[in-house]
Automatic annotation (TrEMBL):
Family: Belongs to the ABC transporter superfamily.
Keyword Transcription among record annotations: no
Any Pfam family hit: ABC_tran
Gene Ontology MF terms in the entry: ATP binding; ATP hydrolysis activity
ABC transporter domain boundaries: 5-254
Protein name: ABC transporter ATP-binding protein
Chief place of localization: membrane
Function: Probably part of a binding-protein-dependent transport system y4tOPQRS for a peptide. Probably responsible for energy coupling to the transport system.
Species assigned in the record: Ensifer adhaerens
SUPFAM superfamilies assigned: P-loop containing nucleoside triphosphate hydrolases
Protein keywords: Amino-acid transport, ATP-binding, Cell membrane, Membrane, Nucleotide-binding, Plasmid, Transport
Membrane topology, as annotated: Peripheral membrane protein
GO CC term (a single one): plasma membrane
Amino acid sequence: MSNLLEVENLRVTFPTPRGDLEVVRGISFTLGRERLGIVGESGSGKSMTGRSILQLIRAPGRVTADKLVFDGVDLLKQSERQMRAIRGARISMVMQDPKFSLNPVMTIGEQIAEALLTHQKLPRREVNARVLTMLESVRIADPERVAKLYPHEVSGGMGQRVMIAMMLIPEPDLLIADEPTSALDVSVQAQVLDIIDELVKRKGMGLIFISHDLNLVSSYCDRILVMNTGEVVEECKAGELMAAKHPYTRGLIASIP
Ligand code: ADP
Ligand code: MG
């Protein structure tokens, strides 16, 4: 099976008055059409890893790698315009805080409608009904009301569900989900994971699932990377995680309540 994503010696660096601070320190991994979990404590570099794949590290932060290839495309050699096209259609990212990803001056319904018109060739008259279906698909019970709200008017959990609906509209080849369910209660979390799973199975989408929740990642993903201070300290199949030997991973396992 060919790889969807190949990452070699990926580094993210921020300049500081005392020299460069490397927050992702030369990590390597490959991803097929599978669910890859990235776990580690807060500050270990998980979000920076996800964002760097999409070239979403703000200056003066820098991304370097020996290889960063998505489905044959060298992501390090794309112009900002080319990256925007890839981000909109082939790789989607659900950010940790949905408030930064939704457009504050458009209603939720308008944003979903725009995404539908851009990515799915729908007749305009069908768009409104599809907006409501998309909201229902992420278990929003009163889609008509929610469609009329602005992002600041919904809770974090609701915003996260809206983001997931939006990110799945292009049916991307790769979804990078950064703590996508951390603001959701457990039953909604399970439903949202089912929706993502459906695309992994039906479309062969690859998934990078970033989470601090070791239990969740080991039950949901196929393979796992454990990160600590910017490095990958463990790479294993999900079923092998609980038997992991690295002291850092053992510590994480021991701290599960
Ligand atoms: P995680 O998602 O695993 O909690 P992050 O990837 O967000 O961790 O952050 C990794 C490290 O990078 C953290 O120590 C964080 O403080 C640092 N960091 C994040 N953004 C910046 C920035 N703009 N400048 C300097 N350091 C940063
Ligand atoms: Mg994070």
